[in-house]
Amino acid sequence: QVQVVESGGGLVQAGGSLRLSCTASKLPLRFDVYNMAWFRQAPGETREAILCNKWDGPNTYYASSVKGRFAFSRDNGKNTVYLEMTNLKSDDTGMYYCAAAGPCTEDLPTNWDYWGQGTQVTVSS
């Protein structure tokens, strides 16, 4: 069965940086034909999409809350995507989830097929 595994979370001070990784395996098709996305869920809040990446183009769409601070990249040879987070704020605290196989538009849809278990990011002020 499909496995999506996030890593790299932790405790960081406000203004600091952190890089998350997400590796997907046993996908029905090659990894490089899947759209990928990152979501987060703050305590007491609903899960929100923060970015998605289209496999067939350079387009990555970002939520306004992270645009300019977060950056997506992918290494198809390693079946891995990354989330580089800089200038972190206390509002960025939450569980971060990676998702594969879903629609990617500037509206950041939330109906994705495969999800990881999440990695916790805590930003201290």
Give the class from helix and strand content and strand pairing.
Answer: mainly beta
Number of helices: 0
Nearest-angstrom radius of gyration?
Answer: 13 Å
Rough shape? globular
Distance between the first and last residues' Cα:
40 Å
Total number of strands: 11
- Give the biggest sheet: 7 strands, mixed
Low-confidence stretches: none
Determine the fraction of residues in helical runs and give it as a percent range.
under 10%
Secondary-structure element order, N to C = EEEEEEEEEEE
Quick check: average pLDDT? Answer: 97
Strand content: over 45%
Topology summary:
Layout (H helix, E strand, L loop, with lengths): L2 E5 L2 E4 L4 E8 L10 E6 L6 E6 L6 E3 L7 E6 L4 E6 L8 E7 L13 E2 L3 E6 L1
Parallel strand pairs: 2-11
Antiparallel strand pairs: 1-3, 3-8, 4-5, 4-9, 5-6, 7-8, 9-10, 9-11
In brief:
The protein has strands at 3-7, 10-13, 18-25, 36-41, 48-53, 60-62, 70-75, 80-85, 94-100, 114-115, 119-124.
Structure explained in plain terms:
The protein is mostly beta strands and 125 residues long. The protein has no helices and 11 strands. It has strands spanning 3-7, 10-13, 18-25, 36-41, 48-53, 60-62, 70-75, 80-85, 94-100, 114-115, 119-124. The radius of gyration is 13 Å and the shape is globular. The N and C termini lie far apart (40 Å). The model has no long low-confidence stretch (mean pLDDT 97).
